[in-house]
Amino acid sequence: ISGKARELLEVKSVLRDKIPVIRRFSGGGTVIVDQGTVFVSFICNKDAVPGLQPYPQPIMAWSSLLYDEVFCGAGDFRLRENDYVFGNQKFGGNAQSIIKNRWIHHTSFLWDYDMVNMTYLKVPTRAPKYRMERDHSEFICRMKDLLPRSAFIEGTIKAAGTHFLLRFVPCDAIESSASANFMPLSRMLTRQELEAAIDAEPESLLSQSL
C-alpha cells in the first residue's frame, strides 16, 4: 500500500503493454500475478492461534512452521528475511495486515511464471540481503520443479488442519454472504497515476535510461 510505482515497476513497459496494476491494501513487495500464481491466505482473529502474538515476526515464524510440514522432503525449504525459499531462491512472497483484533498473512506462491513478465519489475531498493543484487532469473524459482501442484494444495490443507477446524465453503457462498457495504482498500491504479509516476522520476534516472 505504501509502494511507489516508479521505484518498483518499469512503468513505461507497463503502460505500453497495458498491464493492470493493483495497489494492495497490505504491506509486502510487488508481485506478478498470472495463471501460474497460487495464493494462500490466513485471515484470523487475534486469538485464533493459541500463544501467537499478533505481530509481524511471530506470525511469519508461525507460518514457516506450518509450511515446514507442507514442503517436508520437497527441497531445502526455509524462511529467509520474510520470503519462502528453496536454498537461496525465492518462490513465495509474503504480505500482512494487522489490526486490533485480526490479522491476515497471505502468500503469493510462484507455481510457475513467464520470465518475460518479470521484466516489468524493478529490483527494489530495499531488497533482502540474501538476494545479493541478483536479477529475477537467478533470484526466483518455480515450485512446479519440486512437487506436484496437487501435493502442495493437499499438503497445505492437511497442515492447516493441524491448527484449525476446517470446513469447505463454495466460492459462490462466500460471495453471496459478503456485505454490500464492504469497501475494498485494494484498487486498480489509473493510467493517469502511472503516467504521473514517470513524470515524478528523478532527472538523473531519466537521463540514465536515455
TrEMBL record:
Q: Which domain of life is it from?
A: Eukaryota
- Which InterPro entries does this one have? aa-tRNA-synth_II/BPL/LPL (IPR045864), BPL_LPL_catalytic (IPR004143), Lipoate-ligase_2_inactive (IPR053264)
Q: Which organism is it from?
A: Opuntia streptacantha
Q: Where is the BPL/LPL catalytic domain?
A: 4-164
Q: Name one Pfam family in it.
A: LplA-B_cat
Instruction: State the name under which the record lists this protein.
Output: BPL/LPL catalytic domain-containing protein
Q: What is the lineage of its organism?
A: Eukaryota, Viridiplantae, Streptophyta, Embryophyta, Tracheophyta
